[in-house]
Write a structure and sequence with these properties.
Elements lengths: L3 E6 L3 H13 L3 E7 L9 H8 L4 E5 L5 H14 L4 E6 L4 H10 L1 E6 L4 H21 L4 E7 L6 H16 L2 E5 L6 H4 L8 H6 L6 H7 L1 E2 L5 E3 L12 H14 L2 E7 L4 H9 L2 E6 L3 H15 L7 E8 L7 H8 L2 E7 L2 H10 L10 H14 L3 H13 L1
Parallel strand pairs: 1-2, 1-3, 3-4, 4-5, 6-10, 6-11, 7-9, 7-10, 11-12, 12-13
Antiparallel strand pairs: 8-9
Helix pairs in contact: 3-4, 4-11, 6-15, 10-11
The structure holds adenosine-5'-diphosphate and magnesium ion.
Length: about 400
């Protein structure tokens, strides 16, 4: 692999020296410039000097006593140097800082104290990912499906949405994060590996290892199956971020079936996703729970990405959608009709309703997939070329 050029931004002089030694010690990267202040604006001389160094990677150290300035710097550098990858270095037991750094544009979050191995692994991941992006295009989009309460239909929505995305665009993965994974059952698959195997092997994960943990459905959808027993050792938040990043780099669309899981890890994944689909029914208890889940997931300031999916929907006199939106505190995106027989027998047979083409319920899920992808550049391009050939 070609040597990567690295710029180190760290206000602490000792940390700056340590990082330089570590970077140069990887032997795949070289420090080309160090910066002792956080750049404040595009016109700042510090920004100019960083730009002049044309780095492949920007290592930004987040000091625990000045998180805000570091975030602003990450945001600015990400804007001003779009071709460079930002790696944030910081404290891993602050999920909120990880989310803010990733949102500001960091593509890796590396623990402090950092080791040469941590950096080497991150550099290798970057080169591998860049090769794929050059070959196949952009990073994937992640859709996160959570229920208001157990039984609302999160797994049904996630499985059918993933199948619809796979059939329309290909390269789709389904990640089962539920406390007890049901997605494999819905798809009639018998996975050899699960999420637990993937997280245990994150330190040596690459594309081919990731693929070997996935279970392939006949139409091409790839499932990273959930646990079949409540987990004894939970993966750390950092491990979830890394897995999330691997999946988004490797697949075009990733659907997460979170079902009822509500912990720091699932909240982190929700906050890093493109869109969070909150699945609820139209009864009072369900909408009440939806509001609680919305508050929990939205606490970290990402409420605008939450969307309500009303499942088992039927028009009832006196029921208004605006009231449902108000009760849940989330804007309505989609309605899934109430079709108990079709859905429950499809689950029992392991043959999801999306596969029964030309039915109302199959159209409903392909419509949801279209809605979620309609602004995607390559999807638009495909529609345009189709139009031109007519
Ligand atoms: N649109 C629907 N109409 C009628 N019944 C449904 C619908 N969606 C799901 N169900 C039923 O609800 C049950 C729970 O759905 P599931 O997707 O497992 O929910 P969750 O993952 O939120 O716990 C399923 O077994 C299915 O029979
Ligand atoms: Mg479920």
């Amino acid at each position: 692999m070609a040597e990567l050029s690295v710029v180190i931004v760290a206000t602490d002089s000792e940390q700056r020296t340590v990082l330089q030694v570590l970077v140069d010690g990887t032997s795949v990267a070289r420090t080309v410039h160090t910066c002792a202040t956080f750049p404040l604006a595009a016109s700042d001389p510090a920004t100019r000097r960083v730009q002049a160094a044309v780095p492949d990677v920007l290592l930004v150290d987040i000091p625990s006593d000045n998180v805000t300035a570091a975030m602003r710097a990450i945001d600015l550098l990400h804007q001003e140097l779009p071709a460079s990858a930002v790696f944030a270095i910081g404290n891993l037991n602050q999920p909120q800082v990880i989310v803010s750094a990733m949102r500001a544009g960091a593509r890796e979050f590396i623990e402090r104290p950092t080791t040469t191995t941590d950096l080497l692994e991150a550099f290798v991941r970057l080169t591998t990912a860049q090769r794929r992006v050059q070959k196949e295009g952009l990073r994937g989009k992640v859709f996160f499906v959570v229920n208001a309460k157990g039984g609302s239909g999160a797994t049904t929505v996630a499985v059918n949405l993933a199948l619809a995305l796979q059939s329309a665009h290909g390269q789709t993965a389904l990640l089962d994060l539920a406390p007890l994974g049901h997605a494999a059952l819905h798809l009639n698959l018998k996975p050899l590996f699960t999420l637990a195997d993937a997280t245990r092997n994150l330190h040596r994960m690459d594309s081919s290892l990731l693929e070997s943990f996935m279970t392939r459905h006949s139409g091409g959808l790839q499932l990273l199956a959930g646990t079949n027993a409540p987990a004894v050792i939970e993966p750390s938040t950092a491990e979830f971020v890394r897995l999330f990043d691997m999946l988004a780099t490797h697949y075009r669309y990733v659907v997460v079936d979170n079902s009822s899981r509500l912990d720091a890890a699932s909240r982190l994944v929700a906050n890093l996703s493109e869109c969070v689909l909150l699945v609820a029914c139209t009864d009072v208890a369900s909408l009440w729970s939806a509001a609680r889940v919305q508050q929990y997931l939205g606490e970290t300031g990402n409420r605008e990405r939450l969307r309500l999916v009303l499942n088992r929907f039927r028009k009832v006199p006196g029921f208004s959608e605006a009231e449902a939106e108000n009760a849940a505190g989330v804007k309505l995106l989609w309605r899934v009709p109430n079709q108990y027989f079709a859905i429950s027998s499809a689950i029992d047979r392991g043959s999801p309703v999306t596969e029964q083409s030309h039915t109302e319920i199959a159209r409903c899920f392909s419509g949801l997939a279209n809605e979620l992808t309609r602004n995607d550049l390559d999807v638009k391009r495909a529609a345009w070329s189709l139009f031109k050939t007519v």
